[in-house]
Each structure stands twice: as structure tokens, then as C-alpha cells.
Write a structure and sequence with these properties.
This protein has 131 residues and is an all-alpha fold. The protein has helices at residues 7-28, 35-47, 58-63, 70-74, 78-81, 85-97, 99-129. The chain has one domain (7-129). 72% of the residues lie in helices and 0% in strands.
Length: 131
């Protein structure tokens, strides 16, 4: 697992920040003065969108469960109607029990994705050198 302060973590932080900034730019368009109001929505979007490399959301890797959408708090959904508090508490405990395993699987998927990406990039570089 990476730790903040390491070069690998710093690179991941740069990629995350770039993704968030690009999302803000795209979302605002010409309304440049309202960027501060867009930050919470952009962060929520970033935290609840599955990453290609891990197939998991950052939220689920942090808390062991998927987030409840803000819309589900104001509008009654089947998910909310069918909740059983006791069962929910047990499920949350189970989710936390398997969180470490979930993170390990995510790291393996991320390493495999990185390997595939590096191989693709190396192949493209070789092809371009022969042209």
C-alpha cells in the first residue's frame, strides 16, 4: 500500500488533483466566478466514481461500502424503504471486515492495469521509432 510522502503517492495525488481541476473547468464553462461552489460536487463525483484501474470507488475503498447518493436522502427510494437497521449494522460490520481484502484486490487490479498500460505505451513507442 502506498503512503503519502512517497514519489508514487505524490504522482497519484497529482493525477487526482488534475482530474478534479479538469472536472471543475468542464463544469463551469464560462461561469468562472462560481468555482468555489462547484468544489463539493466535484469532490463527491470524484469519490463516488469507480476508477478504471481498481474497478472501485475511492469512497468504497475508504469506508468499505458504497455512498448513499444525496438524492436518496431527500427522495424515498426502495433501498431506503427496505432497510432493516439491525441487518444494516451487521452488513456494515461485515463490509469493514472485508475492507482490507477489498483494498488488496484493488491494488492487484491497479498493478495489472499499470502493467498493461506500460506495455501498450512501450509498444507504441517502438512502432513510432520504426516509422
Amino acid at each position: 500500500m502506498t503512503r503519502f510522502g512517497t514519489p508514487k503517492a505524490n504522482g497519484q495525488t497529482k493525477v487526482s488533483n488534475r482530474t478534479i481541476v479538469n472536472g471543475i473547468k468542464e463544469r463551469l464553462g464560462k461561469a468562472k466566478g462560481n468555482w468555489a461552489e462547484e468544489i463539493p460536487a466535484m469532490l463527491w463525483s470524484y469519490k463516488t466514481t469507480p476508477r478504471t484501474s481498481t474497478r472501485e470507488t475511492p469512497f468504497s475503498l475508504t469506508y468499505g461500502t458504497e455512498a448513499i447518493l444525496p438524492m436518496e436522502i431527500t427522495v424515498v427510494t426502495l433501498r431506503e424503504v427496505n432497510v432493516d437497521e439491525e441487518s444494516n449494522a451487521q452488513d456494515m460490520g461485515l463490509n469493514l471486515d472485508v475492507l482490507e481484502e477489498k483494498c488488496e484486490k484493488s491494488e492487484i487490479r491497479q498493478a495489472a492495469y499499470k502493467h498493461i498500460t506500460e506495455r501498450y505505451y512501450s509498444q507504441r513507442v517502438k512502432e513510432n521509432q520504426h516509422v
